[in-house]
């Protein structure tokens, strides 16, 4: 595109070159290149756990504690992250 602008001598011709190049850039389809997911990356993505959403939450062990944030009750655990729960 810069070489085409350098070749254009007048501002009208330069504007036409810019419009034409932008038109071709917008008209060409873009292809998303995806990388293959390695087994280690898939395991790491699945190991990130969210909250168990339940109607009633209860501490499951002696290390669990209840926190109220933004009107919701959460159960968090220092020992086991599998005990994380959210009410509602």
UniProtKB/TrEMBL annotation:
Signal peptide segment: 1-15
Location in the cell: Mitochondrion
GO MF annotation terms: structural constituent of ribosome
GO BP terms, alphabetized: translation
One cellular-component annotation, GO: mitochondrial large ribosomal subunit
UniProt xrefs under InterPro entries: Mitoribosomal_bL36m (IPR052143), Ribosomal_bL36 (IPR000473), Ribosomal_bL36_sp (IPR035977)
Record's keyword annotation contains Ribosomal protein: yes
Superkingdom of this protein's organism: Eukaryota
Keywords, ordered alphabetically: Mitochondrion, Ribonucleoprotein, Ribosomal protein, Signal, Transit peptide
Family to which this protein belongs: Belongs to the bacterial ribosomal protein bL36 family.
Protein name: Ribosomal protein
Natural source organism: Allomyces macrogynus (strain ATCC 38327) (Allomyces javanicus var. macrogynus)
Lineage of the species this protein comes from: Eukaryota, Fungi, Fungi incertae sedis, Blastocladiomycota, Blastocladiomycetes
